[in-house]
């Protein structure tokens, strides 16, 4: 099947798989998987330590999967898990110093990979990339469940 006959869903799937494999390969020397990277890098986006639920919502990952990833990353000393002082059922997550030292070079590596991917569209700040980002954002807002 040529890309001309592929459905948008098929193309989204192919691009997502291409990206995941490329990121996994790039991060392997750092000892991270793509999913672990997503959790660690996402923690950089929060001003205050998020709950596991907030992190799951932010990443789009299933809460149970985030819980599994968080336990493993905590065991490796990359993140810390602490009980919320107000709601003790809630666990707050934060990068440790070791986690930060691992994720910062990973962010740079993935950023360089993203630059390569977006080059045909004019780079990260190109008009075509910005238009694509708006379109993908609109698609992500469509409820499917």
Please provide a written account of the structure.
- By secondary structure, this protein is mainly alpha-helical.
- The protein has one domain (7-140): Orthogonal Bundle (Arc Repressor Mutant, subunit A).
- It contains 6 helices and 2 strands, in the order H-H-H-H-E-E-H-H.
- It has helices at 8-27, 34-43, 52-59, 63-75, 97-118, 127-140, and strands at 79-83, 91-95.
- It has a two-stranded antiparallel sheet with strand order 1-2.
- Strand 1 (79-83) and strand 2 (91-95) form a beta hairpin.
- Helix 1 (8-27) packs across helix 5 and helix 3 crosses helix 4 (63-75).
- The protein is globular.
- The chain starts with 7 loop residues before the first helix and ends in a 5-residue tail after the last helix.
- 19% of the residues are buried.
Question: What characteristics describe this protein?
Answer:
Arc Repressor Mutant, subunit A; single chain; mainly alpha; 145 residues; globular
The total domain count is: 1
How many distinct beta strands?
2
Strand order of the largest sheet: 1-2
Q: What is the rounded Rg?
A: 17 Å
Give the rounded overall mean pLDDT.
93
Summarize the structure.
This protein is mainly alpha-helical. 60% of the residues lie in helices and 7% in strands. The mean pLDDT is 93.
